[in-house]
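Before the break, one more example. Copy the sequence into your notebook; we will annotate it together after we see the structure.
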Amino acid sequence: MKYFWIQLLLIAGSVSMALMFIRTWGQAKNRAWKRIAFSLFVVVNVYAVLRPTDVTWVAHQLGVGRGTDLVLYVMVLAMGFLTLNTFLRFRSLEKKLTDLARTVALSEGARHNDARLGAPTLAEPKPEPADSDSVKA
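Here is what the structure looks like once it is written out:
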């Protein structure tokens, strides 16, 4: 009962992260392995909060002194993964944005050049010749 409030706070934080992640599933295009990894992370997190001595036992089995050290090492690896993932995503978005800007610039340049030279563009329909039948007066 001594650690009840901190355990409750940590579990509430894990559950709120899971709910936020589930709520954005339709909006974010998360890959299946990311969904599985996050779900596993939440389950392991809740288990570690409820049974910290088990985390210490796993740490000893892996050759790490304390359970908190093991958790810290895993979080450092996870943070590195998230940083790399975010960097690669931003780089991909920058490339797409650059390609889009180039395409728009070339398109606008061609349109302005055609307008300046008086050449018809795709947006401007050519005038149709008047029929002799339609003009009777």
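The two ends are 102 Å apart (CA to CA). Residues 67-117 form the longest helix (51 residues). Try to locate both features in your own notes.
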